[in-house]
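Curious: why these numbers?
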Amino acid sequence: MSYARQMLDTYPRDANVDSDLLAATIDALSDCAQTCNADNAADLTVPDVAEMATCIRLCLDCTDICGTAAAVVGRLAVNDPRVTRPLLEACAAICRTCGDECERHASHHAHCRICAEACRRCERACRALLEVLA
């Protein structure tokens, strides 16, 4: 059981969202933020770093957006869709864009392949949670 799920189980809330889905989204957001941050650092070490400029920028954006979304979604006691929907929509959008860019480099850089996978997982999780938000 993830730490996000364990924490969700420790406090009362008006559960209008399944705890497993919420925890899976928090985990995907956190993993994506960490993976994009690590990919950014790895991109800066490759010989063709100039060709990685777009990937670096998108990874920075994805790190910030996913990290913020994880923090906000992770402290939900009561879902406020006016806040969570735009965050999750932004997250899904940057994950798609960053994942597409990382996939372009995946055949040459394993770190980009891993990052693309994390972005895809996070995009799916954000979209799944968006589907059930009131």
